Amino acid sequence: EVQLVESGGGLVQPGGSLRLSCAASGFTFDDYAMSWVRQAPGKGLEWVSSITWNGVATYYADSMKGRFTISRDNTKNTLYLQMNSLKSDDTAVYYCTKHYSKTRAHGMDYWGKGALVTVST
């Protein structure tokens, strides 16, 4: 059974940092691209970032470039999202997702339950 379990969410002040982790199990982690997707309160899903199976290529939504860093440790079956210079607009539930293939060319077939990140004073 595929499982994606996010952790590391919480309350942070504007300008602060958080690192999200996603522990993956039930599949061969280094055979698949992974992504982060978020959903702000009352809004739709927003793609955040993706990484290829080997971590060589990474992709970011424009509003996250320079602030967020996606990475993976295939020896630990774990995906990460380092978030710096956080803004109130970054408040959202962040989902870890698995793609159908080694690259993001294909869609996402599994999602975690999400981690809430709240950016507020």
Descriptive tags:
121 residues; single chain; four-stranded antiparallel sheet; globular; mainly beta
How widely separated are the two ends? 39 Å
Question: In which range does the helix fraction lie?
Answer: under 10%
Mean pLDDT: 97
Overall strand count: 11
Radius of gyration: 13 Å
Characterize the main sheet: 7 strands, mixed
Structural class from helices and strands?
A: mainly beta
Q: What is the structure about, briefly put?
A:
The protein is an all-beta fold.
Please, could you describe this protein's structure?
- By secondary structure, the protein is an all-beta fold.
- It has strands at 3-7, 10-12, 18-25, 34-39, 45-51, 58-60, 68-73, 78-83, 92-99, 108-111, 115-119.
- Strands 2, 4, 5, 6, 9, 10 and 11 form a seven-stranded mixed beta sheet that branches. A four-stranded antiparallel beta sheet has the order 1-3-8-7, with no helix packed on it.
- The model has no long low-confidence stretch (mean pLDDT 97).
Secondary-structure topology with pairs:
Elements: E1 3-7, E2 10-12, E3 18-25, E4 34-39, E5 45-51, E6 58-60, E7 68-73, E8 78-83, E9 92-99, E10 108-111, E11 115-119
Parallel strand pairs: 2-11
Antiparallel strand pairs: 1-3, 3-8, 4-5, 4-9, 5-6, 7-8, 9-10, 9-11
